[in-house]
Amino acid sequence: MIEIEGVDPMMIANNLKPNYVTHPGEVIKDELEYLKIPQKRFAEQIGLSASLVNQVLKGKRPVNTEFALLTEAAIDIPADLLLRMQARYDRWKTEQKPGFMEKLKNVKKFAAVL
Predict the structure, then answer these.
(1) Are the C-beta atoms of residues 15 and 8 closer than 8 Å to each other?
(2) 21 compared with 29, residue with greater pLDDT
């Protein structure tokens, strides 16, 4: 965290944290809509069940490496981008869990004395 004397650390751009992070499934869903490709057809194209694809597009399941690579091959969204988005989303979700940030602070305090 960047600190500047007399400035609230949360008002410095590099310290800002988003209130909401986009699940990569939303990006895939938007691209499919733009390309006018129905979810069912996309699922058939990549060889996965329509149910699984729907769950990913709704953000109820994560985008894993296989799904990302299949998506890249089908509609040219880079797999690396989707996987980075998923990692960012997973981190954000974890940080939203009640009590987690306090637990993290306690671990950092312990690590500092080592």
Answers:
(1) no
(2) 29
